[in-house]
């Protein structure tokens, strides 16, 4: 028997008897549906032997089951003009498809097969292993990606969030079929999965459809312990003789459910959220020291990160870091102007509206929030939270996330000792 749990003003949520959650939102003005299966499995859940298993598994599930091999999956989606893909993060994996609403039964069938009955053929594991290794090589060739990895490793050190999502060449090369199968068996279950769908749909029909394809799936609930990281001032440099140095500078941020996240979002926009931001104007427009500079945050279950990225020539790296520290100090000491506050709020509200105009954007928001336990807010509720941010909130939030200890990840022709002054 199906048990409806919540019916909200902007979404419907039902939990099947096996623990699988189905959340949906109707958009009657479209003729398509975006559907995603969100699984509570990411790189932070892996043992050292399993490093990279979440992402490797994401690839392997597209190889299909005994009934639906890889070619059958790709041909079936291609035959209806669907778009489909998947992605892995440090805390979850999502498999999604976007297609005509009339083709929803096809998506439910394929996604259900992929999640519940992967074949794990040894020949496909071996061939896909090379694909993942090439992805690691591609990541290593991108200095921006490397700088971000250096920052994450320096910030979280021994914390489960520190290892790279892709794993390492050694871990992927040595990963056995048994290791991958055991990880899938441990982390993939109906109680650790959310099916989110948005578009031209009716919730009860969706629940019935998903129940037909995934209602017989069984498995217990997953747990993920909260781990408080030990943050200290650290510098990690990947030494390369490059034409441009890549800087990621920041500190520990807020966990994902913290109510202060709205103030931090506003502060980050003022600092480095667009072409009118302080860092963009000061570093790029006024001084011509960088092409790209922006602020960002990474929220997780038990911690987060708040950081600034900039790319500049090696000879200007120290000047750019000094300017970043100066602008952070100004916001923490004096806050922002009325004009900056109004402009940031307007930008965030506009960006939110644009991001939720398509089915995939809304599906991503619904699925991620339901899986991670973040409060579901309507657009109006989110706008109200942004509007409520005050000048005092900005100063308090900036001091909370940008007062140190500082961490620096960097790629360029440097040594770590060259930058100790910036993190102390």
- What is the general shape? globular
Mean pLDDT across all amino acids: 95
* Fraction of residues in helix: 40-55%
Q: What is the makeup of the main sheet?
A: 7 strands, mixed
Can you count the helices? 16
Assign the CATH architecture of the largest domain.
2-Layer Sandwich
Strands, total number: 12
Beta fraction of the residues? 15-25%
The first-level CATH class name of the largest domain: Alpha Beta
Topology, pairings included?
Blueprint lengths: L2 E5 L4 E4 L5 E6 L5 E8 L13 H9 L8 H10 L3 E6 L4 E8 L3 H13 L5 H20 L1 H14 L12 H6 L2 H11 L5 E7 L3 H12 L19 E6 L5 E8 L8 H12 L5 H9 L6 E7 L4 E9 L4 H18 L3 H18 L3 H14 L6 H9 L3 H12 L4 E6 L7 H4 L1
Parallel strand pairs: 3-7, 8-12
Antiparallel strand pairs: 1-2, 2-3, 4-6, 4-7, 5-6, 9-11, 9-12, 10-11
What does this structure look like?
The chain folds into 2 domains: 3-214, Cytochrome Bc1 Complex, Chain A, domain 1 (2-Layer Sandwich); 234-423, 2-Layer Sandwich (Cytochrome Bc1 Complex, Chain A, domain 1). The protein has 16 helices and 12 strands. It has helices spanning 53-61, 70-79, 104-116, 122-141, 143-156, 169-174, 177-187, 203-214, 261-272, 278-286, 317-334, 338-355, 359-372, 379-387, 391-402, 420-423; strands at 3-7, 12-15, 21-26, 32-39, 83-88, 93-100, 193-199, 234-239, 245-252, 293-299, 304-312, 407-412. It has a 7-stranded mixed beta sheet, with helices on both faces. Strands 8-12-9-11-10 form a 5-stranded mixed beta sheet. The chain is globular.
């Amino acid at each position: 028997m199906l048990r409806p749990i919540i019916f909200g003003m902007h979404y419907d949520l039902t939990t099947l008897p096996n623990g699988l959650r189905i959340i949906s939102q109707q958009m009657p003005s479209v003729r398509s549906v975006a559907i995603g299966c969100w699984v509570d499995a990411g790189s932070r859940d892996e043992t050292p032997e399993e490093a990279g298993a979440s992402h490797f598994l994401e690839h392997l599930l597209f190889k299909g089951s005994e009934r639906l091999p890889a070619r059958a999956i790709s041909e079936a989606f291609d035959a209806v003009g669907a778009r489909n893909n998947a992605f892995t993060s440090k805390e979850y994996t999502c498999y999604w498809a976007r297609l005509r609403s009339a083709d929803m039964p096809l998506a439910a069938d394929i996604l259900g097969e992929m999640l519940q009955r992967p074949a794990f053929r040894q020949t496909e594991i071996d061939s896909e292993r090379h694909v993942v290794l090439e992805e690691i090589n591609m990541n290593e060739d991108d200095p921006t990606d490397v700088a971000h990895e250096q920052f994450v490793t320096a910030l979280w050190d021994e914390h489960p969030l520190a290892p790279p999502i892709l794993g390492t060449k050694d871990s992927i090369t040595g990963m056995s079929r048994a290791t991958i199968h055991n990880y899938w068996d441990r982390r993939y279950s109906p109680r650790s999965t959310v099916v989110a769908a948005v578009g031209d749909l009716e919730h009860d029909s969706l629940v019935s459809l998903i129940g037909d394809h995934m209602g017989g799936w069984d498995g217990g609930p997953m747990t993920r312990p909260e781990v408080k990281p030990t943050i200290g001032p650290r510098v990690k440099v990947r030494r390369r003789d490059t034409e441009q140095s890549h800087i990621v500078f920041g500190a520990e941020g807020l966990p994902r459910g913290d109510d202060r996240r709205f103030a931090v979002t506003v502060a980050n926009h003022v600092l480095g959220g667009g072409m009118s931001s302080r860092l963009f104007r000061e570093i790029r427009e006024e001084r011509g020291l960088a092409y790209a500079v922006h602020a960002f945050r990474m929220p997780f279950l038990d911690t987060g990160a708040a950081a600034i990225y900039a790319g500049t020539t090696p000879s200007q790296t120290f000047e750019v870091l000094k300017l970043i520290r100066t602008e952070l100090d100004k916001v923490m000491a004096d806050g922002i102007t009325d004009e900056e506050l109004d402009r940031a709020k307007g930008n965030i509200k506009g960006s939110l509206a644009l991001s939720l105009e398509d089915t995939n954007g809304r599906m991503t928001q619904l699925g991620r929030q339901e899986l991670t336990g973040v409060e579901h807010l309507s657009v109006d509720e989110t706008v109200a939270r942004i509007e409520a941010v005050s000048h005092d909130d900005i100063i308090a939030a900036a001091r909370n996330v940008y007062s140190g200890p500082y961490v620096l990840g960097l790629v360029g022709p440097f040594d770590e000792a060259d930058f100790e002054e910036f993190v102390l």
